[in-house]
Amino acid sequence: MTSTQHLAGGATASPARPVYRGSGRAAETRRKWYEIIGLTTPAIAVYVMFVLVPMGFAVYYSLYRWRGVGPPTQFVGFDNYVLAFQDPIFIDALRNNAIIVVGSLLVQGPIALGVALLLNRRFRGRTVFRLLVFVPYVLAEVTVGIMWKLILTDGGTVDALLKSLGLGSLTQAWLADLDVVIWTLLFVLTWKYVGFAIILLLAGLSNVPAELTEAAAIDGAGWWQVQRHITLPLLGPTIRIWMFLSIIGSLQVFDVIWVTSVPAVRSLGASGTMATYMVDNGFFARLWGYGNAVAVILFVISFVAALLFQRFLLRRDIEGAITRRVG
Amino acid sequence: MATKHRAAPFLGILLSGSLLLTACGGGGESEEPAANELYKNPVTLTWWHNASQDGPGKTYWTKVAKDFSAAHPTVTIEIEAIETNQLQRTRLPAALLTSDPPDIFQAWGGGEIREQVEADYLKDITDQVKTEVANIGSASEIWQVDGKQYGLPFRMGIEGIWYNKDMFAQAGIAAPPTTFDELNDAVTKLKAINVVPIALGAGDKWPAAHWWYNFALRACSVDVLKKASIDLTFDDPCFVKAGDDLKTFIGTDPFQKNFIATPGQNDPTSANGLLANGKAAMELMGDWNKGTLETVAQDPAKLTKFLGWFPVPAISGSAGDPKAALGGGDGYACAKNAPAECVEFLKYIVSPEVQKAYAQTGVGLPVAKGAESGVEDPALKSILDATSSATYVQLWLDTAYGSTVGNAMNDAIVAIFAGKGSPQQVVDAMKSAARK
């Protein structure tokens, strides 16, 4: 409160400023507030204009039966939300999102940890390996989608490879079999994003003080014991941050699914996610009000997931930064 | 997993953000001159069309705009070429909500134009284009709403079956099938020589849905079809019969394996790719298919040699008119507040000379009488003949019923192809979407 008064006073008193210069805390506080306002205003303006306002509009439009022709006039309350949860295809999309969230954590986590621990040791060509592991993550999503679509097509590279290995019986309609396609997509997503987890964990590993591991080694701990009792616990914050990013990313995943899986398979509920469902219905079925409702549902689910995760798992890591005032 | 997940929230924002334009779009430059002042004041027409890929289509429209400006120096035409789905699903709807939409733009006709007219977006051009409508004939009805003209087509054609003549000869099929019994017979013969009888791009939904449309066209009388397009009522049992007939047909296993994930066109693994590269014998597709087949053919010269076309076969003893056909086209419409020159430009686009040169590009079939001689390709010529001898041309059902019903219908039809849906569910889905 006091600071606001200073602020208001500062605006009118500014011509007299030299008089107060060096006279102590009032000028200092005022200067601090000028800085805060000056530096944050552009960011806040952009945030309000391009995040908060559109979000408000999305909520507003989601309450209308609206086809995007003329202004929305037909208020329907929460009907669009009810409709979404009554549509089996949307429920399928929720299930697919859940598979991707859990699958990503369970598959990428161990792989990333293992590879990161390996790449953290010194050996020839380590830099090259690190680079290669990161390549899929750098590729554009659409490129990845088209590439895997061609590789996984009937009689494509994967099928040919399996046949040449004498595993012809394992060939599948990777992208056409309605029971298989979501697992295929999970594989593609893992391939694409595991590199990110590895890089994150490698960064975390470089923060583990060498003194600790050396001390443990001197005390007679083997490599495994060092990893288990020193590296892993110290890597905790990094792992939790990665899990957080992974969960939110999995809930909102769109591009790889959109490109790799064809519309028919999505519309049958076999591969669509909330985000692809939103675009299929919002734009292609021209249900703009409904599409906005799905957008809001997606937002709320992601937001709640983020809050819960922060509350229970990230609490210690971000303590002070967000939860408490920093003196 | 994903951290680069900007797309999803971005699209969410786009859904609503694009609508912000409603509020933000400032006053346009379209101060409308009175009709008698035509070509007196300098005007700029913005033109949005969908020939976004470099090729004869895009080049031709640029030339048309240039020629028109040369003849009428007060008119400047600014073209924006936008990919079809983007144009029709997002850019146009958003632009039409603002006070500054493009002046002349792509219009599909049918349910879409009806919605646009109800929202008061389009210019009523009935009085200005009487000559053109008379010359184009019944095709122009698709761009009419309640007897008034709001747009004109520049391309129109019916769909049929594109086939590989060499494979037909090899399989001992003497003449293109004219009934479904003959088609089934052809399928059996083609299987005997180990060829995929029919390529199907069900992955994109609509290529599969078009089979149902054709069964509906054969099962339903013209009156029922006409009424359905206007009232969106689908109570006639013929709509269920269409699904039954489709199920029986799918039961004969005429398509390639895993068709549910095969895209329709534009890539070598698509249904187009299968036909163009000699891996399948037939494909049900619209009149534009020649051009799209060429883009995926490894040997376009060979394609031209073996490619043939025949109309969708009739079903003996059915209620539908055997000479009726499914078709569709592309047209342009003028925005409500577009300058009067817009209508003049539209008339120019559909004039016989411009249409004839359009036909010569091979991009599509012209609609204006007097332009027929521009069609040179034999397959396209047979479509032109069939189009003019069709007793009734039903617009693609998904276009005729509008995006919402169309999309629900296509989804439900795809479910039949996947072995999951039922004929009754298609009709139920259409009915419930009509209320959405």
Automatic annotation (TrEMBL), chain A:
PROSITE patterns in alphabetical order: ABC_TM1 (PS50928)
Principal location listed in the UniProt entry: membrane
Location relative to the cell: Cell membrane
GO CC annotation terms, alphabetical: plasma membrane
GO annotation terms (biological process): transmembrane transport
TM ranges: 36-63, 98-119, 131-151, 180-203, 241-259, 287-309
Keyword set includes rRNA processing: no
Cross-referenced Pfam families: BPD_transp_1
Region (Disordered) location: 1-23
InterPro entries for the chain: MetI-like (IPR000515), MetI-like_sf (IPR035906), UgpAE/MalFG_permease (IPR050809)
Domain ABC transmembrane type-1: 94-309
Domain of life: Bacteria
Keywords: Cell membrane, Membrane, Transmembrane, Transmembrane helix, Transport
Membrane topology: Multi-pass membrane protein
Family: Belongs to the binding-protein-dependent transport system permease family.
Protein name: Carbohydrate ABC transporter membrane protein 1, CUT1 family
Automatic annotation (TrEMBL), chain B:
UniProt cross-references to InterPro entries, sorted A to Z: Bact_solute-bd_prot1, SBP
Pfam families, alphabetized: SBP_bac_1
Signal peptide per UniProt: 1-23
Keywords: Signal
Protein name (record): Raffinose/stachyose/melibiose transport system substrate-binding protein
Organism: Asanoa ishikariensis
